Amino acid sequence: SIIEATQNPNSLTVNGQTVDREALVKLLRLNYESFCYSVLLPQGGETFFDLSPANKLTLFSQIMGLDYWLEQSQKAAEESRKLDEEISSVQYQMATMGGKIDALSFTIDDLMIKANQWEGTQAAKLEKLTVELQDCLETCQYLGSIKQPEPFNLDEYNDLIQTLTEVDKELAVNDSKINEVKRAQRTVGGRCPVCLQPVNMQHLSLLTKHRLDLSKDREVLLTDKEVLNEERSKAEAARRAYVASQEKASRAAYDLQILEREVCQLRQRLLEVKEEKNQFGDFVTSKRNEYDTLQKALVLKEQQVDSLKEQYTAVSYWVAGFKRLRLYIVEEALKSLEIEVNNNLAGLGLADWKIEFDIEREKKDGGFSKGFSVLIISPSGSSIRLETFS
To answer: Which of 32, 314, 331, 334 lies most in the core, judged by the most C-beta atoms within 10 Å?
Structure first.
């Protein structure tokens, strides 16, 4: 790559492409400070090995671009934290769903009991209404069988009463005549109160004969009256029976009308009871649907938690993984640097001397010790820090 920087006009190009300083630093992976320590050694300035271990590590990290892995580790830690919070949030949602599911289960059981009780009550209502309807129908059938009696012949009854009245009149007349004859019989020697003739033995004989005829007529009239009275008794009994039957039929017709209206009302009530819906059953269906929906949602949340935990395991691994990767890159770079430095030492005639580089190490608590240390291995094998030399 060809980098050109000009003045008047100021410009900065890489292979003829205009860039800014940040893009150039990113391309070279060298800023001004690292350039001065690694490419251009300014006169009178500090060399790389004159820096403190912390500053050497900072400069080495800048040159090697090692902060990238720390940034990635930080991103992994942040992502792990987000995943952990998301897992906690989903688990809280699962706990809330679990509480709702338990409450719904209790509600469904309670609604099932009420639904069964409602069904039992409805069955009892239907049975009662059915029995009442059957009783009414049977009563209606009985009342419907009661017919109006045959018409009573009032004319014949009145004729009978008239005839009986006439017989009573004839009997009264007959009794009056008999009494007159009796009085005439008691007036022998006097005048007959009937014919106004003198009453002698011959006339008395006639009166006796007339009295006998009247008595016979009276017997006939009494017989006729007795027969008529019997017929009248039968007729009156028939009339009373007719009146009673007529009243019974009228009362039955009236009661039948009332019962027929009651039958219609019972049938309507039966239809209404049959068409009544078990609202508890609808509630049970609704709550079961809600219960199933929550169960499905809970399963999805469990799957989501499992997925998030897998992601968390994978991401949290790279919190330390990126640091270990950075350490591996550093170690590899140091090995190469050690080889180059020690080769140069041998070229300078210091074959028995060695230089070792040591950098941050992972500690037991998971952290890292920071610093870039330079160790001088003398021919005797002792290890001494570079800073102890003048």
So the answer is: 334
CA dist., res. 275 & res. 21, Å (int) = 86
pTM for the structure as a whole? 0.52
Per-residue b/e over 72-98, b at no fewer than 16 CB within 10 Å? Answer: bbeebbebbeebeeebeebeeebeebe
Cα separation, 200 vs 235, in Å, equals 50
Among candidate residues 95, 58, 11, 77, the one with its CA nearest the CA of residue 315: 77
Cα–Cα distance list, 328 to 56, 63, 365 (Å)? 18, 16, 19
pLDDT at 63 over 80: no
CA–CA gap between residue 3 and residue 5 (Å, rounded)? 7
pLDDT of residue 197 exceeding 70, the answer is: no
d(C-alpha 126, C-alpha 276), whole Å: 11
Read off φ and ψ for residue 16, nearest 5 degrees.
80, -5
Query: Exposure of 248 by Cβ count < 10 A (0-12 exposed, 13-18 middle, 19+ buried)?
Result: middle
Distance from C-alpha of 123 to C-alpha of 119, rounded to nearest angstrom: 6
